[in-house]
Design goal:
single chain, 447 residues, alpha+beta, Outer membrane efflux proteins (OEP), 11 helices, 4 strands, elongated
Length: 447
């Protein structure tokens, strides 16, 4: 009986060889992929407007783009987020697959067939073999895959916060260069007024030609700066469009203002507590540590071999008698006791624990740096708004009045104009830095 059973178990090999041989005659082709799932730069025929670009064009058509709309578009259209959403879906599928029980095996064959006799004199047998998973391996695999899914979901949440922070920073840059371009245009207007005033005084013989030439040079410098600011404005809008999902879409303008200097202070202690409790980067590392512990349980469970239960039957040769077979089989763990997998899992736990500690420390350090940058930008913006900028404005007004009265030279007027322009530019830079710092703090706060 054991010899017959062994022969019958080998019977499916004949069938399997035929199936493999037939399949090998064909050509392996990659699975078909929907055009929408193919990267844009790999498509044979690129559409005139992508789905992302069409939605973005509708959002910016004929009106300035607001921050709220930009954030909503980025979350829907960002290729990075869509890629991570695919990874989350794949992790969920792996978690589902990990908990499935192995399929039974059906075998069938012909035995003891005399070469010169018909099939009727052979033994025809068939059977079903079902592996029984022992040691809780399925539960451990399903739990480990579940933690991997949770880690992927935390990675997606972290990436979503990063995208929102990047969009806020890009939007702040667009606001900054919009205001810088407007400031440069105003400085060109002021420089032209100085040229007109210097030309009138030169014509009247009150000043030498050198003062007129200095005013014209200052006007030319202001016009060059205006051209640069306008170019930077267009570049900032293009970079913002790229953050939203399609760099080919032209964003005409942005709506809103840079944050005021009077923004409220933020508590570092409160942010630190919220970061440790809910920051997705720390949550992802924690889930990976928990998965590593479950991987150890899985490795230990894999040392316990599965039990195979077989039930079969058939017809015995020319007598036509029915036969029934039943049996069990189990691998003997003489050589492979999963020592390597267990040792690897133990090392993985230690690595995951250190990575979780390092990740939490890095997150708190980045938070402290963002808080420091926010406090500095807030202080600088407040000083420019309350102290420095009003004084620069008054200095220019008084200097221009004195020049009209003949009390000072044009060089002093030009110096006061340049000082005011630089002060306004620095004040805008401080408010832009404040917006970028706020974006980084909101990334940690989850806003």
């Amino acid at each position: 009986m054991p010899a017959r059973s062994a022969r019958r178990r080998a019977a499916p090999a004949y069938i399997l060889v035929g199936v493999i041989g037939a399949g090998a005659c064909g050509t392996l082709e990659p699975p078909a992929v929907a055009p929408a799932d193919t990267p844009r730069h790999l498509r044979a025929e690129r559409p005139a407007a992508t789905e992302e670009g069409t939605e973005l064009r509708r959002a910016v058509a004929g009106r300035p783009l607001s921050l709220e709309v930009a954030l909503a578009l980025a979350e829907r259209l960002s290729p990075a987020l869509r890629a991570l959403e695919g990874e989350v879906a794949a992790a969920r599928a792996r978690a589902l697959q990990a908990g499935l029980y192995p399929n039974p095996t059906l075998d069938a064959g012909i035995e003891d067939w005399p070469p010169r006799a018909g099939v009727g004199e052979a033994d025809v047998v068939a059977g079903v073999t079902q592996p029984l998973v022992l040691g809780g391996r399925l539960r451990a695999a399903e739990a480990a895959a579940g933690k991997a899914r949770e880690a992927a979901e935390a990675d997606l949440a972290l990436a979503r916060r990063a995208v929102r922070a990047e969009v806020r920073a890009a939007f702040a840059a667009a606001l900054f260069w919009r205001d810088r371009a407007a400031l440069s245009a105003e400085l060109v207007r002021v420089a032209r007024e100085s040229v007109t005033l210097a030309a009138a005084r030169f014509k009247a013989g009150d000043v030498p030609e050198s003062e007129l030439l200095k005013a014209e040079v200052e006007q030319a410098r202001a016009e060059i700066e205006r051209e640069r600011a306008e170019s930077e404005r267009r570049g900032a809008l293009a970079r913002l469009a790229a953050r939203l999902g399609d760099a080919t879409v032209e964003v005409g303008d942005v709506a809103g203002t840079l944050p005021a200097a009077g923004a409220p202070a933020v508590s570092l202690a409160d942010l630190g507590r919220r970061t440790l409790e809910g920051y997705p980067g720390i949550a992802a590392l924690t889930r990976r540590f928990e998965r590593a512990r479950l991987e150890l349980a899985l490795a230990r469970a894999s040392a316990i071999p599965d039990l195979e239960v077989r039930l079969g039957g058939g017809r015995l040769g020319e007598r036509g008698e029915a036969s029934i077979e039943a049996g069990v089989a189990i691998a003997l763990p003489l050589f492979d006791r999963a020592e390597g997998r267990i040792a690897e899992a133990e090392a993985g736990i230690a690595r995951a624990a250190r990575e979780a500690e390092a990740g939490a420390s890095a997150a708190l350090a980045a938070l402290a740096e963002a808080h420091r940058a926010h406090a500095l930008a807030r202080s600088q913006a407040a000083r420019y708004e309350a102290e420095i900028l009003p004084r620069a404005v008054r200095a220019l007004e008084q200097t221009r009045a004195a020049y009209r009265a003949g009390g000072v030279s044009l060089l002093e007027v030009l110096d006061a104009q340049r000082t005011l322009g630089e002060t306004r530019a620095l004040e805008l830079e401080a408010r832009r830095d404040l917006a970028v710092a706020e974006a980084e703090l909101k990334r940690f706060a989850g806003e």
